[in-house]
Amino acid sequence: xxxxxxxxxxxxQVEEAAERAGGVTAVRSVRLQVGELAGVVPDALSFxxxxxxxxxxxxxxxxxxxxxxxxxxxxxxxxxxSVGMPPLLSCPRCDGGGTDLLSGRELQIVGxxxxxxxxxxxxxxxxxxxx
Amino acid sequence: MCRVVDLQQAVLAKNDRAAQTLRAELxxxxxxxxxxxxSPGSGKTALLERELVLARERSVPVAxxxxxxxxxxxxxxxxxxxxxxxxxxxxxLCHLESAMLAGHLEGWLPDATRLLFVENVxxxxxxxxxxxGETLRVVLASVTEGxxxxxxxxxxxxxxxxxxxxxxxxxEAVGFDESAFRANVEQVNPGVEVLLTSARSDLxxxxxxxxxxxxxxxxxxxxPVMARxxxxxxxTHDHTNDSRxxTHDHTNxxxxxxxxxx
Lengths: 131, 262
Hints:
heterodimer, A: hypothetical protein PF0899 fold, three-stranded antiparallel β-sheet, 6 strands, 24% helix, B: alpha/beta, Rossmann fold
């Protein structure tokens, strides 16, 4: 169960980014890409994330995880396939000799949504009749 | 107001950076790290003890660091070989991280060390995600664990640069199907070498030391398919002064992309 370590790494990086940006008052959500072969369980990660966010600028933030399927391509015969779980990483068509993993190992912070104290550069006119 | 900010950072970027730094620092002083992963009770310590004794007999300066949740039993066993050994207690943590390893090496690792064997916490899940600055990653499995272990723990076996089967002296008694095991390894990590060993009957003892020395001498090591990612946009370089971060303004405060009124 290293999901707590992963959650802490996510929180640490978001905190650093918020500090660099300045003026961030709350983080609403964090979007992650988690590959099928990343060795991370999204549910366990969400659980740890919620706990570990307490007392930080991320308190209450939602963790959105996009699962990335594992895909591979055989270099010699160009066949492409979904690797599945457990993954099949040798070519099912030929004897292989070189497989490229196209996707599936992602463990990436894509982006965040946060609140900051600033006001928009050009405040749109409120339109009362449109509520 | 609410902003959507693109970060595009690898979650483990910090560990990966620390591992790169450690690898470079150790290389500069002539030390190569071998990271050993297995489940608890696979026989890592027994095999490592034999390899350390051989190294000492051959005057190869080696050292070993062993990580467990509790007890110094493994360090006591490995220390019988007479080489420098350090026990790390992780206090419940299921894996080692590179910054932790670097901290433990400071002030302890003897200068002339050629090979440092790191016996990771007995666990085939979590340690797989953490680069420790090693040059050779070895995954071990005993014949009692079942031929499908590589399929059950594909990340660990899929990222191995060498697979070692232990306790082969009892392979027949437990009905170990070597060809099924090899086929399963091949499925998740085509091309990786599988070594058969038995610390008790001497089979294959010394092979791990030889592979480690070859890696230390710069011989090419196996690159697992899982470690080859031509199109993956993972950034392990530093984003401290991140000019890549850009923001989109959302005037409605919900963060949903909408046209602001004009």
